[in-house]
Input
Amino acid sequence: MNNVICPNLGLDLAFERELLAQWGIDDINLIEINDPRPLDAHVNEYQASGALLTYEPATADVLARCPSLRIISLESIGYDTVDIPAATAHGVQVTNVPGYCLEDVALHTLAMALDLTRQITFQDRQVREGHWDALSGYPMRRIGGLVFGLVFFGGIAMRLADMLRPLGFDVLVYAPHASDELLAEHGCRRADALDDLLAESDYVSLHCPLITGVTDNLIGSRELDIMKDSAFLINTARGGVINQQALVEALRRHAIRAAALDVVEGEGAGVGELAEIDNCILTPHSAFLSEDSFNELRERALKHLVQALSKHSDGHVDDLVN
Output
């Protein structure tokens, strides 16, 4: 029997256990854990060969103390919580679930863009506070012909581009590694430099991973000053892609018109001064979420464990990071 620990997922695992039964898997035992001890304590207590994780950190020190561990299956696209070189050195396979929420994040981004365009959230706040004034807020424009800039062009951005074009947006993309053929397939124009996209776009939407030294603080004071003062900034990628204090200052001095953020720096610790700014929409890192995406995430993450550990598998593991 292969013990798989599931620490601090906040789930009862009934969905996963039902799937295992449907698949005829009788050699994987899921163990729900809800306590603050580090990962290695749980692995060693149960001699676990697998771990189903979301946010639980797996550092090099922790992995060095987990001799029985063979796979970490992440219920996420990102894998920055795991020290990948250390996992590889210790023979631990790491999987993620790319693309599971592609449709959902694209739709959330579009919803944020339309909300900014029509000031739905802002006007709702005003009405609830007793202000019945259709002319409050910033001037609103029709979207036909406005430039919607996408920073990077992965699956989410591609799906979003396909949603934007029928609405009349001119879609501009900064993605150095995307081919001209791919951009043409989705009806997009290329920006040769990020600064070019920032200067031309009426909407700037971020779809890049958080990579230290590459995309962290990609949007700071300089970049915000390049943007039009009528432009909108949308982030459904990672909070660290934007310098948050620079954004606060830019919004307060109206260097850009407004922002919509599903991700912020230090999530869970509060949004700080952003909460005090009217021309900023905030959602709690929920762009990925729908009943459909959540079930797909859980099913695919469980499948990775079965592929790696079960005697009923041929040993091929999908979505390996290392």
